[in-house]
Design brief:
alpha+beta; four-stranded antiparallel beta sheet; 8 helices; binds zinc ion
Length: 299
């Protein structure tokens, strides 16, 4: 699942496109999977409402991509398990979308699961109509058009952003003090901290040398400090290299992110720990798996 660094990469790329998508207008929409639009809105209602709206701002909260639109509406896209947004030009050929320009959009199979397409008019003359596309292998992505109140409600359960300046070590420590559970689960709980999932919780805990099953009530101040520092370091690094593409995540250009060679434990079970040479293990925790080094990260 795309996590904070991947979603942040998409948002930063969307804010830098040439021609810019800021100011562009939604002129049409296509889908072959109407359930992607969250009820109670039907696809027809959604289509009617979004047509003519202009993009004013693109930002991120947790793992949500938020397009602020004219008319006080926000298009929320949560890519969930296997979704990622792409920007380009496609044509429908015999019922299949074909990217018009050679490159990763046309060539990487992960960019071919196109189930939702938006046509954008940037108002230029002649118009350079771009398309915003959602490639989603397993079709779990969530797409919603919300007014201000609905958006507020939707985001209200999310915990703080780990990279915000206001999220200091003191605040992190306090957050943990009021919670119970194993550190890996706590880091992944979106209501406690927003944006971290399986990849970056594993990588953070390896960096901090903390076992993923440690109870947070038993962590001492020094250990909490190590987790906080590792979390900041790993997330910043992952954003810098544009995310992790071991699975299906791709940038809006269709290219892969560069975190893969930096990955220390996530999906590396059976390989040697780069710090001590011990074989990395994978264990199950509440239906999810945790990857760790049994020597560096003692229980
Ligand atoms: Zn190790």
């Amino acid at each position: 699942m795309p996590e904070l660094p991947e979603v942040e990469t998409i948002v930063r790329d969307l804010n830098k496109t040439q021609p810019p998508i800021l100011g562009a207008e939604f002129i049409d929409i296509w889908t072959d999977f109407r359930k992607m639009i969250k009820l109670p809105k039907t696809f027809e209602q959604f289509k009617k409402e979004i047509k003519g709206k202009k993009i004013q701002k693109v930002w991120r909260r947790g793992k949500n991509i938020l397009f602020e639109l004219s008319g006080n509406k926000t298009l929320l896209i949560h890519q969930k398990l296997t979704g990622h947004l792409l920007l380009g030009k496609w044509e429908l050929e015999k019922g299949e979308w074909k990217a018009k320009i050679p490159g990763p959009l046309a060539e990487d199979p992960m960019n071919r699961f196109l189930h939702l397409m938006f046509w954008l008019d940037d108002g230029r003359h002649p118009p350079t109509t771009q398309m915003l596309a959602l490639s989603d292998l397993r079709k779990f992505a969530k797409v919603e058009l919300l007014d201000q109140e609905e958006l507020k409600k939707e985001l209200s359960s999310l915990g703080p952003e780990p990279l915000e300046k206001s999220f200091t070590f003191e605040k992190f420590k306090k957050t943990l003090e009021s919670k119970k559970g194993k550190i890996k689960q706590v880091l992944m709980d979106q209501t406690i901290i927003a944006g971290i999932g399986n990849i970056y919780s594993d990588e953070t805990l390896w960096e901090a040398k903390i076992h993923p099953f440690r109870e947070i009530s038993k962590l001492n101040e020094g250990e909490i400090k190590r987790i906080y520092g590792a979390m900041q370091k790993i997330l910043k690094k992952a954003i810098e290299v544009k995310g992790e593409s071991i699975s299906d995540f791709r940038r809006i250009s269709g290219e892969k992110g560069g975190f893969d060679p930096l990955r220390k434990v996530y999906r590396r079970e059976g390989q040697k720990c780069s710090r001590c040479g011990t074989i990395i293990k994978r264990i199950k925790l509440a239906g999810r798996s945790a990857h760790f080094c049994p020597n560096c990260q003692k229980a």
